[in-house]
Every structure is written in C-alpha cells, then in structure tokens.
Amino acid sequence: MSDPTPVHPLIIGTRGSELALVQATTTEQLLAEAFHGLSLRREVIRTTGDRRTDLSLSEVAKAEGTFDKGVFIKELEEALDRGDIDVAVHSLKDMPTVLEDRFAVAAVLERAPIRDVLVSRKPGGLDAIPQNGRVGTSSVRRAKQIQWLRPDLEVVDLRGNVPTRLKKAATERLYDAILLAEAGLLRLGYLQQEPLLPNSETIVGIPGLHAVRLPEEEFYPAAGQGAIALEIRATDAPSRIFCEGINHQETMIRISAEREFLRLLDGGCHTPVGVFSKLENGQLTLKARVFPDAGGEPKTGGLTGPADNPIALAAQLFNSLS
Question: For this structure, is 94 an active site residue?
C-alpha cells in the first residue's frame, strides 16, 4: 500500500464549544500518534445549534429546516461538501440516524461512560428533588424518563454548553436539578473518573453542586452516547484510511447496533427512546426503552447475541418490541 500521508494538511472540522474542542484535540492526538508526520489543521465552525439558543432543540430544527438533520452538524456537513474540511468531529448522539449517501461515519473513538448524570444543589439524587420540582434538560428522552420515574416533576428547557448549564444549575432557582451526559462532564474535568463515594459526588470547581450517575439499567442513555464520531465524504478514500486507523472496533460494534435499532424505529435524535449495549466475551447485549408518541407506559426489552452481527441483533430487538 502506498503512503497515505497527504501533501496538504488533513483538515479537522469541529464546533467551537469547550467540549467539542476537547473532542477535536483527542482526535488530532490519536491521528498524530497513528500517522507520524501527518500534518493537521483545525477549522472551528459555528453550527445552527450553537447560534440558536433562544429556542428548544426541536423548535430550532423545525425553524431552520434541519429536522432530523442534526442542528449541531448541518454546517459541518456543508463544509465537508465544499471541501473546506476533510473530517468532521461529532458527538455521535447529536447525529441523525441515517446520513445522506455522500457522507459516512468512517470511525468512532473509544467510548466514554454512557450514563446520564443528575446534577443538583441538594445531595441525594432523584429522591431528594422536592415534590413538583423542576428539572432542566433539552432532551426529550431525558424528559420522558425523568417524568416516568417521577410524574410529579416539571421539565424545563435547558440550553447552552456544559459550563453554561452547570452555572445555571448553581445560580438559577428555576432548576432544582439538571441532567447531563457523564461523558461530557468527564472530558471537561467536572467529574472524577470514578466517584469517591457512591451517590455522593460534587462537581469539580463549582461549589454547591452535587452529582449522581444514573445507572444505565435504570435510566437508559441515548444511542451513541459517550462516543465521538468521525464523519467524512463517502468517496474520500484518503480520509477514510486515516479515520479507520484510529477506529475503536468494540465501540463501532456497539454503536452500529444502537443506531440500527433507531433506524428501524424510524427515530432520530429527538425521538424519546433510550438504548444501550454491552460487549462481553464475544456477546453483545442490546437494550431499549421506547416511549409511545401518544403517551403511556414505555416498551422495554433486551436481547443478547453474537457480537459479529450487531445489525441482526438490532432487528431482533426491534421485532420483539413491535
């Protein structure tokens, strides 16, 4: 095989949030380690989701004509189309379930923990939120699950990057608690890798905020949560070689099953469904919780099968819940 190292730099596209920049840095470090001498350049791109913080994410998608397109990826894909960037770095859970044919997810990095985290000013987690309390989130999945577990709670829309949301939780009485992804809190240093005491953590650097990591078996995460995806033009063979050189195969197997389940469900990033997977000893376990559009009790199920066919396992789980 000929040397894939390009004459020109490989251009990495990313959003400008603190978390997105950390994810881009991780990607660049892995590429530099895997391909010595590879020249890299970064392009920071402001997306629709970053620009429109005045509306809920679902309203932004409709207002901007990006429904199920992904309000955090549209401008990055446009940059790929123009050739302004070669690789777009995304939080996988922000991506639509099905990409247009001219794009492809060429790789995913090793996955971070997938749990959701309840952050509040009072310790004690979900049980400590007062009756009829208010929980902030922009995710319909989180909203449905928190109200399923605590029907008395009111969900209040919460926008902004991770530091902004934490500041609101600490200072604004509108929220008794907020919900965030563990992966982002870890990558930004707001949580220790492991809690010092079970169900008794504080947010690093923000006095007065307590955190509880919600077990995925109880509070189902989003498909792809905790994974960083590298998107390319589908026909860009050199960029594909570089991305595949840092792909984490176990993560790819898991997210393939999770996203295929969403595809069969015809669900996007605004669909109230939690789904997660585990891979152990060559066996893949896939679990899902789907909330009906009309309301009522969710359908919950799970299956285990060979890890070498994640697509088939997703189809089996979908059929079992249909």
Answer: yes
pTM for this structure? 0.89
Domains of the chain: 10-110+227-247 (3.40.190.10), 116-214 (3.40.190.10), 248-322 (3.30.160.40)
Joined tokens for residue 223? 């498909």
pLDDT in tens, 227-255: 999 999 999 999 999 999 999 999 999 99
Cα distance between the two ends of the chain: 47
Phi-psi region of 37 (alpha: psi -120 to 50; beta: other; left: phi over 0): left
Q: Among 302, 226, 307, which residue's Cα sits nearest to residue 261?
A: 302
Bridge pairing between strands 116-120 and 210-214: antiparallel
The residue whose two tokens read 């390319």 is 232
Reading across the β-sheet that carries 134-136, which strands appear in turn?
A: 154-156, 134-136, 177-181, 116-120, 210-214, 201-202
- The pairs formed by 54-60 with CB atoms below 8 angstroms and a separation of 24 or more are 56/138, 56/157, 56/159, 57/138, 57/139, 57/159, 57/270, 58/140, 58/270
Q: How far apart are CA 319 and CA 314, in angstroms?
A: 9
Among 86, 94, 116, 176, the one annotated catalytic: 94
Q: What residue type is assigned to position 132 of the chain?
A: N
What is the tens place of the pLDDT at every residue in 271-292? Answer: 689 999 999 999 999 999 999 8
Measured CA angle at 144 (ends 75, 230), to 5 deg = 30
The answer to whether 317 and 305 are in contact (CB under 8 A) is: no
